[in-house]
Structure prediction request, 274 residues.
Amino acid sequence: MEKMVIGVIVSVGEDPAEGLNKARTLGIKTVQLGTPPPQYFSGERKEALKQAIEKTGIVVTTVFCGFIGESYRDIPTIQRTVGLVNPAFREERVKRTLEIADFAKDLGVDKVAAHIGFIPEDTGSPLYKELVEALRKVADHCRNNGQSFCLETGQEKAEALLRFIKAVGRDNIRVNFDPANMVLYGTGNPIEALDILKDYVVGVHCKDGKWPTVRGQLGWEVPLGQGDVGIERFIKKLKEIGYEGPLTIEREITGEQQVKDVMEAKKLLERLRM
Ligand code: MG
Prediction:
């Protein structure tokens, strides 16, 4: 694959080809695929999705895990509902993660990614140890599938994520680096964070955001190039660390404005990746 190929995140709805066709119309050749609804995990629907991928010629670089019941409304809600941290959901979601990994394998995709939730700060706590164990299970399953499991950045500081990756101790645990999340969650300068995590980064989200103005609250997402990430510096830093993977655009709105913003982001990235 060409270096720093531009991608976009797409979801799968009723029509398996809709998101893929949208990407193709925009001249985008790679996607990260959100977890499709359950009916796509077997039988005809899965075949239809595979065919849609083949027909569009789009490369799926990553399948991104999503779980029923997750909400990104505010920080306490995210802490309670997102990923694998909350013991109330963990077992069932680890199981689902393994199913998603198998599904990805079936599509020929060698990277699975997730927001696993806020990694606990107390590395001696039972919760931390349980999360390490859960990630080992996921990593080992992905290894058998020939896959990496990528942790999305932003809900904790880069140092904490690095410490956690080392605690898990599996060489197929990697990072999907989202610079905007570092800003939105107020977890640190994204360029410095990229330096800390550089040996693990195999995917990035090209997204932008503004710092929170109230402590304990989230910042807000804005079109690429209009936020506090410093997208020029970000791409420059990616080149410096020798990153050659896809630049996947993420714009977390819907409708026509999303399409416009993705087109603008693509133009900007085409210039910066040169
Ligand atoms: Mg992201």
User: Anything to note?
Assistant: The two ends are 16 Å apart (CA to CA).
